Amino acid sequence: MSEQRQRGSNQAGVRGGRRASGEPVPGTTARRRLTVVSGPSGVGKSSVVGELRALDPDIYFSISTTTRAPREGEVDGAHYHFVDRPTFDRMVADGQFLEYAEFAGNCYGTPRAPVERALDQGRPAVLEIELQGARQVREAMPDAQLVMLLPPSWGELVDRLTGRGTEAMEAVQARLSEAERELAAASEFDAQVVNADVKTAAQELLDLVRGPSGSQD
C-alpha cells in the first residue's frame, strides 16, 4: 500500500513536464506559455510582431480561421484558414477556438489545437488579437500571458492615425474612441510594452515571450 501511495504522490507532483516546484523533469520538454499581444489601432502591433518573427523563428504564430473570401495573394493555411460559415459554426459548437468574433459580417477565430500542440512541444506561441479576443483567451487559457502594446503618448497615437491620410476624419475619430477604451483596459494585462521604436519594443516582447513558462493544471 505504501508503495502505491508513493507512486501516486510522484505522479501528482509532475504536470506538463514540470515538477510541483516548477523545475523541468529530466527527459521531458517543459510546456511553454501562450503570449497574447494586443493594443489599439495605430500602435504598431503588426510591425512589432513582424520584427519578433525575425528575432526568433522558433516562435509559433497562430493562424486565424475566417469565413471571409481570400484576397489576392492570400494562401490558405499561410495567411488564414478559410472556411465557410457552417464549418465555422461547427467549430464554435465543438469548442475548437480559443477566441472568436464577427466583424463586418465575417467571422474570425483562433484555433486551439495548433496552439496547444506548439506549447506541448516546448515552443513559445504568440497570438496578435484585439482586446475582446484577449479577454476570451484569458478565460479559455488562464495561464496565458497578456501583453499590451502602448504608444509613447496619446499625442503620438493621434499623429499616427491622422497621418495615414487614408480614412475620413469620422473613421479616425471612431478609431481614437476605440483606442481610449482599449488603453483604459491596460491594467488587465500582465505586462505593457511601449512602442517608441519597433526593434526595441520587439526585443522587450521577445524577453517576455522567452520568460518562465506558466504552469498548466
Folded structure, characterized:
- Residues 32-210 form the Guanylate kinase-like domain.
- ATP binds at residues 39-46.
- It is an enzyme of class 2 (transferase).
- It comes from Prauserella isguenensis.
- InterPro entries: GK/Ca_channel_bsu, Guanylate_kin-like_dom, Guanylate_kinase, Guanylate_kinase_CS, P-loop_NTPase.
- The protein is an alpha/beta fold and 217 residues long.
- The chain has a single domain, classed as 3-Layer(aba) Sandwich (Rossmann fold), CATH 3.40.50.300.
- Helix content is 40%, strand content 19%.
- It is built from eight helices and eleven strands.
- It has helices spanning 2-12, 45-55, 85-93, 112-120, 131-140, 154-163, 169-183, 198-209; strands at residues 14-15, 18-19, 34-38, 60-61, 65-66, 81-82, 97-103, 106-111, 125-128, 145-150, 191-194.
- A five-stranded parallel sheet has the order 4-9-3-10-11, sandwiched between helices. The chain has a four-stranded mixed sheet with strand order 6-5-8-7. It has a two-stranded antiparallel sheet with strand order 1-2.
- α2 (45-55) crosses α8 and α6 packs antiparallel against α7 (169-183).
Write the layout of secondary structure elements.
Blueprint: H1 2-12, E1 14-15, E2 18-19, E3 34-38, H2 45-55, E4 60-61, E5 65-66, E6 81-82, H3 85-93, E7 97-103, E8 106-111, H4 112-120, E9 125-128, H5 131-140, E10 145-150, H6 154-163, H7 169-183, E11 191-194, H8 198-209
Parallel strand pairs: 3-9, 3-10, 4-9, 5-6, 10-11
Antiparallel strand pairs: 1-2, 5-8, 7-8
Helix pairs in contact: 2-8, 6-7
Pfam families: Guanylate_kin (PF00625)
GO cellular component, one term: cytosol
Domain Guanylate kinase-like: 32-210
